C-alpha cells in the first residue's frame, strides 16, 4: 500500500472516529463538546474541499442543536453553512435557500446571532442570484417567518423584496384589517405600490394592487370607480405605465389627485422617481441652485434611475410589531430606506 493511500485511509478513519464521538456527545447531552467536534469536521472537510459532505453535516448539526434549543451552537453551525456555500460551487441554490429558511424558522427572535445569520444568508442569496437586494425566494421565506412572529415591519420589508405580488397583497389586506383604521385602507396599498414602481417592479405592483383591491372587504373590486380617490390614482398610474403614457398624462394625473397624494408627504419623492423612470421627467431643479452647485444637484438626481442597483441592505433590527396605520413613525423604518 502506498504512503498516499495510507494517509487517505487514516484521514477517513479519523473523520469516522470523530463522527462516532460526536453522536455520543449529542446523545449524552454534552452539547459543548459536540459543537467543537462539528467545527473540527468543518475545517477538515473544507480543507479537503469536500463541500457536499460538509454542507450536509453542518445542516443536520444545526437542526439537531436548534431542535434542542441550543440556539447559539445551532446558529453558529447555520452561519458555517452559509460560509461553506460561499466557498463551494454548489449549484442547487433553491434547495439551500429552502434549507436556510428552515434553519431561520427554528431560530429564536431573541438570539443575538440571528441578525448575523439573516444578513449573511441574504448576502449569499444576492451573490448567487446577481441581485444586490437578495434572492426573492430568500426574502419570501424570511417574510413568512417575521410575519408568523408578529414582526410586521420586517415582514413588510421582505415581502416588498420577494417579487410575489399575491402574497404581498394578501399580507397588506391582513395588515390593514387588523392594524389600521378604515380611513387608511387606501394608504396601506398606495405606499407599497409606489415603492415597487421605484424598484421597476411593474408586474409585481399590478399583482399586488389587484390582490389587495379584490380581497379587501372594504373594496372588493379591481377596477374604477373606487370610492377612495387614491385607489383610482394608483389604478390609472399603473395603466399609464403599462401603455407607455406620456409625461403630460403623468403630470395631469398627479395634479388631478393632488389632494389625495398630499395625505402622505413621502409620496412626493416616490413620484419624482417614477416620473424619471417611466415618463422621461427631468430631475427637479432647486431654486437658486445655479452654476456649479446646480450642476452637482442635477447629476445627483440623474443617478436616481440606477439607485436600486446599489441599494444597501436594510439592517435587520428587532422591531415592535404593534400597529396603527401607514403614517405612524414606526412604519417609516421599512423598505423606503432603499428607495430614497
UniProtKB/TrEMBL annotation:
UniProt keyword Acetylation, yes or no: no
Q: Which residues cross the membrane?
A: none
Entries under InterPro entries matching the protein = GET4, TPR-like_helical_dom_sf
Keyword annotations of the record: Cytoplasm, Transport
Q: Name one GO biological process term.
A: protein insertion into ER membrane
List the residue ranges of the region (Disordered): 305-340
* Family from the record: Belongs to the GET4 family.
Listed PANTHER family = GOLGI TO ER TRAFFIC PROTEIN 4 HOMOLOG (PTHR12875)
Protein name as annotated: Golgi to ER traffic protein 4 homolog
Which organism encodes this protein?
Hermetia illucens (Black soldier fly)
